[in-house]
Automatic annotation (TrEMBL):
<dbReference type="InterPro" id="IPR032466">
    <property type="entry name" value="Metal_Hydrolase"/>
</dbReference>
<dbReference type="InterPro" id="IPR001130">
    <property type="entry name" value="TatD-like"/>
</dbReference>
<protein>
    <submittedName>
        <fullName>TatD family hydrolase</fullName>
    </submittedName>
</protein>
<keyword id="KW-0378">Hydrolase</keyword>
<dbReference type="GO" id="GO:0016787">
    <property type="term" value="F:hydrolase activity"/>
</dbReference>
<dbReference type="Pfam" id="PF01026">
    <property type="entry name" value="TatD_DNase"/>
</dbReference>
<keyword id="KW-0479">Metal-binding</keyword>
<dbReference type="InterPro" id="IPR018228">
    <property type="entry name" value="DNase_TatD-rel_CS"/>
</dbReference>
<dbReference type="InterPro" id="IPR015991">
    <property type="entry name" value="TatD/YcfH-like"/>
</dbReference>
């Protein structure tokens, strides 16, 4: 059985004491590849270091909406240059975050539009962060013709109506720990309807830890728990779910 964690933050300080052990535990759980996310000036270099250190770790680089206000002239060129690296498989995570609201909405919109434009010019898929901004995310993706590159709606939390609009633009939907929560009605309803060839799984570690470890630090190895929950919701075996989502991730991100 092979699993791919399509969204993790193994460079986070929460792993400074035992990062190697965390990575080894993931491998022991059947996680054969991981995509680490560099999302600002601090985490992009550490993400690239991990991708260069481990054959099975890939990178996505972009500017997170919470950090949008810190983006400076030249940062977009930096991201473009890094996208030439053979281990960089997507631009992200990018998007909108109206929950924390650490950057003004107009700044978030501009930074998102600029990065979608970069992705289109490079032919790179994008990884979208969306928190409490469903309508604006869909509108901007449509206006900026994000369908030309597609990508993944990371940790999808929207309704089925929003999901359909994202699917119509060629996006994959990725689900993590919340589908294991008893009270997470909407994500469970949505994942049950997502076409199998558009489904991805992730951890977003060290965040969004699945049951039964909710409240503790998340790890990439816990993507197996997400896979088990997803398989049950889709009515298929864990092995079939693992095979299909691994195939989807490899094709979507162009990894071997």
């Amino acid at each position: 059985m092979m699993l791919i964690d399509t969204h993790t933050h193994l460079d986070a300080p929460q792993f400074d004491e035992d990062r190697e052990e965390v990575i080894q535990r993931a491998l022991e759980q059947g996680v054969t590849r991981m995509i680490n996310i560099g999302f600002n000036r601090e985490t992009i270099p550490t993400t690239m270091k991990l991708a260069e250190q481990y054959d099975f770790i890939y990178a996505a680089v972009g500017w997170h909406p919470q950090d949008a206000i810190t983006m400076q002239d030249g940062d977009l060129d930096w991201i473009a240059e890094l996208c030439k690296h053979e281990k960089v498989v997507a631009i992200g995570e990018i998007g909108l975050d109206y929950y924390w609201d650490t950057s003004p909405k107009d700044v978030q919109h501009k930074v998102l539009r600029d990065q979608i434009g970069l992705a289109r010019s490079l032919g790179m898929p994008i990884s979208i962060h969306n928190r409490d901004a469903h309508e604006d995310i869909v509108r901007i993706l449509q206006e900026e013709k994000a369908n030309e590159v597609g990508g993944v709606m990371h940790s999808f939390s929207g309704s089925w109506e929003i999901a359909k609009m994202c699917l119509n633009m060629g996006f994959h939907l990725s689900f993590g720990g919340p589908i294991t929560f008893k009270n997470a009605k909407q994500p469970k309803e949505v994942i049950a309807k997502v076409p199998m060839d558009r489904l991805l799984i992730e951890t977003d570690s060290p965040y969004l830890t699945p049951h039964p470890y909710r409240g503790k630090r998340n790890e990439s190895g816990y993507v197996r728990l997400v896979a088990e929950a997803a398989a049950e919701l889709k009515g298929i075996s864990l092995e079939e779910l693992s095979s299909l989502t691994t195939k989807n991730a490899m094709e979507r991100f162009g990894i071997r």
